[in-house]
Amino acid sequence: MRFSRWTGLRAAARVGLEFMDLVMLTGLLAAGVRLAMAIGFAALGETVSQRSGVINVGIEGIMLLGAFLAALGAVWTGTPWGGVLFAIAGGVALGAIHAFFTITLKADQIVSGTALVILGLGVSSFLNRLTLGRTAASVPAFDPVDFGPLTDLPLVGRMLFGQNILVYVGVVLALALAWGFRRTVVGLEIRACGENPGAADAAGVPVNAHRFACVLFGSALAGLGGAYLAIAQISAFVENMVVGRGFIAIACVVFGRWRPLGVLGAALGFGLAEASQIRLQTWYPNVPYQFFTMLPYLVAIIALVFLARGAALPKALGRPFVSTHG
Amino acid sequence: MKISTPFAYAGIAFGALFVPSVFILMAGKDPLTIWWVLIHYTLGTSSGFAEVVVHAIPLTLLGLGVAVAFRAGIFNIGGDGQLICGAVLAVAMAKILAPLGVAGAPLFLVMGFIGGGIAGAVVGWLRARFDANEIIVTIMFNYVAVQLLTWVNRGPLQEASRIFPRSYAIAQSLQLPIIVDDSRVHAGLLVALAAALAVYVLMSRTSFGFRLTVLGESPEAASYAGFNRTAALVSAMFLSGGLAGLAGAIEISAVHHRLEDGFAEGFGLAAIAVGLMARLNGLAVPLAAMLFGVFYLGAGALQRQAGVPFPIVWIIEGVVILAFLALDRAARGSASRA
Questions:
Q1: What is the pLDDT of residues A51-81, one digit of tens each?
Q2: Which pLDDT belongs to residue B227?
Q3: Do the Cβ atoms of A115 and B141 come within 8 Å?
Q4: ipTM entry
Q5: DSSP letters of A4-38?
Q6: Which DSSP letter does residue B168 get?
Q7: Burial class (CB in 10 A: 0-12, 13-18, 19+), A257
Q8: Residue A128 phi/psi, 5° resolution?
Q9: What does pTM read for this prediction?
Q10: Is A122 on the interface with B (CB under 8 A)?
């Protein structure tokens, strides 16, 4: 008698939980993907840059400039696509500084990247106070793509079919990069620049030109990642709104072992961590919210500790290359 | 094309002034006037100069921390977080230290050193044991530390009335004295100068410093010589973080007297530039810190008096780091040609 009552209660509880879980999980997965892509774009860009042998720790600053320019461009042109263009241009501009210092001048890559972090913070905040910060202009942003009834699919509907266009751009980009690194000559050459630039040079690969292009491309994507924050994730620019995502993106490159799809997967993990911590804050109002806000950063540290060992990092990463036959 | 070194130096100096000037122009101001106001306000008056010194105190300690870690080949950009950890530990111990009389204030600073040192040592250990990239780890710790600070200001260390998000004030006995009349220049200045001297001696005159330098310059040689890499990395980062924590405790003891959200925000970033500029010589750290004190104080004055947004200071900092890189390159270039 006692036994059956308990079983009944537990069964009822389980049904209730499962129902809640489904609704909750659907929202969590959708939010996780949505919150992942800013990091995703930046991490994919960093992957390209690092594969060619140049580490760029400045993507935090590039993302900030990208976020600001995206908001500004969207307001000025009236469309979020205008913002995308502005952000990419800004990313390329900061990337050119990094490329010039690290490849042309052969300066320390970490120091140059750190300068970009500070420059990006300064330029984006400074210009914001001269422009957007003085008005209350609303920023045009990307809406979710309309897939009709597919969005209502249980569990995965909103995750797969309820996102804005940039999310799909990001996924296609990751697939294209994965294919490009494996199957194209340029992809092979870029990998060679990062693994063994001497041999690549001997085989006639223009190592420094490739690296320059990869840094610009990677910085453009970091700018796009910043743009995502300001015109897709929310529709506003807030000073210092990137709050460490640029560095988390660098960690994602390590977790993804320098493979585009793995890197995107790592970014999705952080998107889920972010989506979870926001929900945990409301579920556990008695726990100080700061402990939940800390979570994604702690996850990054812990993941780095467990996944960094024996990492397949490009062998010539961080080293300038001097051609022997000029 | 070869450019002779004096021209390279002149070009770099021009660039370092030119780029921020463009932004000043965008703000609709005359760059020459603004640069003059900045210099005059900070260095042209004794009150301004005293405030530059006040700003240079934490920047010196944080910059020394960056420089020490650099020697061991570690890029510690976690100064902000380690500063917070030091300040939080010191304030948490304040009620125990308050009745200890003259020993109170020094112990308060020691607590700051320990708090920041532990935060740094963890990073050193993770790097040595797991090869965890210290740049990412220290930055992540910065964000964790900011959350820790906002929590203690609303939780365990909050003032008794629980109205404002800030900690209780520390006792008078824990506060460092003002050493220059009619200014805020405090005894932390002596601590910072002593630390600069101590770090200089430690790095250039002791076997500990020699080991760190070898480890930083050539990890292979260090391992061939049988140096304990883990011990060296952990102790270098304990020292580096400790100096940052000491800066935090001094800021609380001498300037703020309690914890508040963002009480020393942005010092860590500036300290990277300070540490880089002074990489060649530890004794140069206080001078570099003075320069950035000028920028910080000047930028605040420009925002208030001339309407140039405060973030100009970060633009200047970024440009100064790049200029330093270019100078370094120009110096190396001339050395290799000679």
A1: 999 999 999 999 999 999 999 999 999 999 9
A2: 83
A3: no
A4: 0.89
A5: HHHHHHHHHHHHHHHHHHHHHHHHHHHHHHHHHHH
A6: P
A7: middle
A8: -60, -40
A9: 0.90
A10: yes
